[in-house]
Specification:
The chain is an alpha+beta fold. The chain has 6 helices and 5 strands. The chain folds into 2 domains: 140 residues, no CATH class; 53 residues, Beta Barrel (OB fold (Dihydrolipoamide Acetyltransferase, E2P)), CATH 2.40.50. This is Serine protease.
Length: 217
């Protein structure tokens, strides 16, 4: 006899609605990708701030969602490895080798990331191909812009860089990284330079700056 049973409607809270959305495999995958984009853009353009904040939030939400989903850790590691390769592309001018490796790693990671026999617990191939294609275009464009910027700096040679001041991003003894004109450059110093010290450009050789430590820095 169910006549005396009281029926009560329980509304889903805003928090639960948000959790329901971000734990959707497709949304979690897109958040992970946006996080990678944001961090890459921030590292390649230091001081932009906004992309780094958005990227960090997206990654945190993505990792929160992934802990509730049936993921394949090999796929997740490949996605993380892709992020590492993209970050290295910012620090090492590989002329696209690291970017290509990152895209391949991302494709494999995307295909392996979710492990479930249930269709609604996986990301569709169409979404994966769309996201990977967008990622490839994003990084190819960013890479092309970076290479053109470096070549333009080198073409101007002494007129554009010699005499300019910068900051050592790493210790140089003699080689390391410096930050000049909003960009990270490979550099060689005529004497040891500590991280954070100011430097002055004395010459340019290919894509490597010749620098010296600024006195009283």
């Amino acid at each position: 006899n169910t006549k005396k049973i009281e029926v009560r409607k329980v509304e889903i809270s805003l928090r639960d609605r948000i959790l329901e959305v971000i734990t959707n495999p497709t949304i979690a995958y897109i958040l992970l990708t946006l996080g990678i984009w944001g961090l890459f853009f921030e590292l390649s353009n230091p001081g932009a701030i906004f992309p780094g904040i958005v990227g960090g939030i997206c990654l945190i939400l993505a990792f929160f969602a992934l802990q509730s989903l049936p993921i394949n850790y090999a796929g997740l590691l490949l996605m993380i490895f892709a992020l590492i390769l993209f970050i290295l592309e910012v620090k090492i001018v590989s002329y696209g080798a690291l970017t290509i490796g990152g895209i391949i790693s991302m494709v494999l990671g995307s295909l392996l990331l979710f492990e479930s026999p249930l269709p609604y617990m996986r990301v569709s191939l169409v979404v994966i191909l769309t996201v990977v294609a967008g990622t490839a275009l994003f990084f190819i464009f960013a890479l092309g812009f970076a290479i053109r910027a470096h070549k333009r700096k080198v073409t101007t040679g002494d007129k554009g860089l010699v005499g300019e001041e910068g900051v050592a991003r790493t210790s140089l003894n003699p080689a390391g990284d410096v930050f000049i004109h909003g960009e990270i450059w490979k550099a060689e110093s005529d004497r040891p330079v500590k991280k954070g010290e100011k430097v002055i450009v004395t010459g340019v050789e290919h894509l490597t700056l010749k620098i010296t430590k600024k006195e009283n820095s």
